[in-house]
Amino acid sequence: MELAWLEDFLAVIDCGSFSRAADSRHVTQPAFSRRIRSLEDWIGTPLFERSSHGAALTAAGERFRPSAEAALRKLLHGREDAIAAADSGLPLLRFASTHALALDFFPQWLRKVEARSPVDASIRLIADTMHACEQLLLRGEAQFLLCHGHAGVSGRLDNGDYRSITVGNDVLLPVSAPRAANDPRPRFELPGSPDEPLPLLAPTEASGLSRALAAAQAQLAPAQVRPAFTAHLATVLAAMARDGRGLTWVPQRLVADDLAAGRLVHAGDASWTIPMSIRLYRPRNLTGAAATRLWAAAGGD
What we know:
Shape: globular
Number of helices: 11
Structural class: alpha/beta
């Protein structure tokens, strides 16, 4: 059995079809299909139901998936630890974080954790979208994930294979540019109207913020908005809002300076504010003394 077979298997699950998975793995589809067939022959049973609509896991594939993810995770961790030990003699802690938290929250939070218990390790941080960060944790390329969470949203990590703790709080605020330098009223103010729908600057589906907004919209009064712009990064949405392109929801900590300086203003009253938590995720089976100490210092049990 080859390591590449496990990576191919998980690529099909992510991509939903053999052709897209083959493209993502940079191999031809016939060669990719042969590798999947070799894995199935090694296991002794089909792992996928093939159809013109794509590929779906069989019952055997569903049962094998956690083992494949765990095996890859252990191998990747072992490789990284070996490299880190060779380079510095210290273990390596791998973090994934959404962009919205990587710049300001992560350094402050890590400083507080280290004050409780010194972290005798090298630290690697990868900042990306929520979807990409989840993939890093699922693939074992990260041991921890720092992201926003919402009480009404369950993600791919909210199952028995992962654990999480709340390490901070935040809110999503609707913001807009002011009407003028001497007029602090929002240029675009919720709830809008059918006659003049408000231009919405929205996060893409890859962003974790989009999930919270979708969950909260059912609880908030309906707004009259029209899609005007989408982007992965909340910083880009905030920049477009400062430019007067529309209104957007962004984490309060991200735009605190803009609000204080009057470059952005609240685009609605408190009923439009969405409470968020800041959560730290880890695999249930966390390995390594340094990782275990950090989890305990962060408040995990």
